[in-house]
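Submission sheet (multi-component)
Chains listed below:
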Amino acid sequence: MNPKRRQKIVFSLLFISSLLVITPIFLIFFFIFKEGIKVISWEFLTTSPARMGGGGVFPAIVGTLYLTLGTVLISVPLGVLAGIYLSEYAKENLLTRLVKLAIINLAGVPSIVYGLFGLGLFVIFLRFGASLLSGCFTLSIMVLPIVITATKEALNNVPQSFREVSLSLGATKWQTIRYCVLPYAFGGILTGVILSIGRASGETAPILFTAAAFYLPHLPRSIFDQVMALPYHLYVVATQVPGVERRVSYGICLVLVVLVILIDLIALITRYQIRKKKLW
Amino acid sequence: MVEEIKIETENLNVWFDSIHALKSLNIKIRKNEILGIIGPANSGKTTFLRSLNRLNELNPKYHSSGKIYIDNQDISKSDVNLLRRRIGMVFALPIPLPISVFDNISYGLRMQGVRDKKILSQAVEKSLKAAYLWDEVKDRLKENSLKLSGGQQQRLCIARALATEPEVILFDEPCSGLDPISTAKIEEAMFKLKENYTLILVTNNVKQAARVGDRTAFFLSGELIELNKTDQLFTIPKNKRTEDYIMGKFG
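Outcome: structure written.
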């Protein structure tokens, strides 16, 4: 076979593989949109459910926003600080290797395990009850590995020479991290935040026992209140309540997907703005 | 005439894990001289430089024995940040931080807590003039320094090292990636700088050491083989290995 033809075949293979990867995503979007758009109305988005499976999804939208926001507020500072420590300060020894291994494994733990853990620790032991607070903490523990790993990767990608230049000019280690490393790792850290937002807003299992209300036609009044959340509401409507029209489920799906995309978009635009300002 | 000694090492040994990178190094560096250091790859030249500003300590595999004195002070006992303010360094490749020219050069001072715009501006202008870069960038101070050419970037790095007013400047093969004209400009800057600073120039370019150095040291496999006035080292080397290296027989 001549090299030109071989080149063509390889190219086609690569192209088809990429196409196959994105096809399911487009199909999912297409069906959710096609079915879901039928039930979307101003009323659907802004009113409380009158009965289970009817009325609007407003409390679930707000609940998901609260849960996501709370999770970001807890997991991002904690995860970024831990990432900085592991990448910049921790010496290579058995303990740090164990910690790193634990983080990798934590990312692979099934989400229902986090749900049960949250039930045990936050709901029962710490007596937060099934509440917004417990839910945020549980989701935070779930997304922490994502934030930590993204932070570590982002910091590792900043050239070592930047650190050496900064130190050679008499800057302290913390100044070096603050002014010479973090600014250039910010984009990568934000990518981790975006991923964790997607994860936190879409997961059902971790909030199943810790935060989500089956039916709660009003907004939470404090962080110790239960909340409705879109993924759990979807699960309930689709499987637990008989006689609900299928398209209502698709409608909730659509709202959830659009919500996640909107939150991600904000983060993406922020990242774009930051990267535009810096050449590096 | 007794020369004033700026830097002195006493039985300096450096290891990276089991690799013995510097072997019982005893060297005296005079104030306001340019000391050229030549030698083949892996001869310990860069390790020696990075011992002086304690940058080797970033490497977890590093350990050492022996003493280094600057102005008769043991540097292992001095505050590492203060030490690095006294010893500037210019790296092999130009490494401008991806910020403006002004911010690059004022970086060291800003990290010391200097906030006064006027002081910073003066320091930036003074350093850029000393690095022979002022005329080329005086209207581009706000521009990102990555937009400068390679030679300009390296002079920017020299200016940045000068801005904290160090006493010693370490050059680690500063011209290795530069064209002859940029190299000439940097050598010109060095001649001027030695009036106020002590310079140590590690170079792979034997001719550069011959052109610039007051004295030249020849390193081989972590040992100091020979140290002499540059013209003597290059015309009548005492050691056979020095001669072989200068003649280009190995390395």
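Remark: The first strand of chain B starts at residue 5 and ends at 16.
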